[in-house]
């Protein structure tokens, strides 16, 4: 049964483009992921919140360009937030500087382009975001 009064969190994902490629991360428990995260209580500047998350997760500096996709994501069974929902806003972002150094939230990263992004297809809603980016 749907609850029209359901409360969910707000998250943001950065699709960081550098030299025609986009940075994708691997979450060891969930698979395909992108830099970003949920807004912290009191954060009102969405752009600065996304830049903060990107710095924490990748050590990169970015320019946030524009949103291109929204979705609702539900954490899977086995996750410490299982069943919780996040309204996610995906942004096109431009790489500014830095070398990728991933945080302990992820175990791998890769840069993909329009020709090879299908190689990271894990049948998840996160891959649907990447398809939308390249469509």
Describe this structure in words.
It is a single chain. The chain has 135 residues and is α+β, with helices and mostly antiparallel strands. It has a single domain, classed as Alpha-Beta Complex (Nucleoside Triphosphate Pyrophosphohydrolase). Helices cover 17% and strands 41% of the residues. Strands 1, 2, 3, 4, 5, 6 and 7 form a 7-stranded mixed sheet that branches. A hairpin with a 3-residue loop joins strand 2 (21-27) and strand 3.
Structure annotation, total helices? 2
Which structural class should the secondary elements be placed in? alpha+beta
Write the CATH homologous superfamily: Nucleoside Triphosphate Pyrophosphohydrolase
Unreliable runs: none
Shape: globular
What percentage of the residues does DSSP assign to strands (E)? 35-45%
Rounded to the nearest angstrom, the radius of gyration is 14 Å
CATH class value: Alpha Beta
CATH topology: Nucleoside Triphosphate Pyrophosphohydrolase
Overall tally of domains: 1
**Share of helical residues:** 10-25%
Mean pLDDT: 92
Question: What attributes does this structure have?
Answer:
41% strand, alpha+beta, single chain, 7-stranded mixed β-sheet, globular, Nucleoside Triphosphate Pyrophosphohydrolase, 2 helices, 135 residues
Furnish the topology, listing elements before pairings.
Elements: E1 9-18, E2 21-27, E3 31-33, E4 36-38, H1 46-58, E5 61-74, E6 85-97, E7 108-112, H2 125-134
Parallel strand pairs: 1-6
Antiparallel strand pairs: 1-2, 1-4, 2-3, 2-7, 5-6
């Amino acid at each position: 049964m749907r609850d029209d009064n359901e409360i969910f969190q707000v998250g943001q994902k950065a699709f960081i483009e550098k030299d025609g490629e986009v940075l994708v991360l691997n979450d060891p428990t969930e698979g395909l992921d992108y830099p970003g995260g949920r807004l912290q209580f009191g954060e009102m500047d969405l752009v600065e919140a996304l830049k903060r998350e990107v710095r924490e997760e990748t050590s990169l500096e970015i320019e946030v360009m524009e949103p291109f996709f929204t979705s609702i994501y539900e954490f899977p069974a086995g996750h410490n937030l299982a069943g919780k929902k996040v309204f996610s806003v995906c942004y096109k972002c431009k790489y500014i500087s830095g070398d990728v150094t991933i945080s302990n939230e992820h175990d791998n990263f890769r840069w993909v382009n329009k020709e090879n992004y299908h190689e990271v297809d894990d049948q998840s809603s996160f891959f649907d975001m990447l398809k939308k980016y390249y469509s």
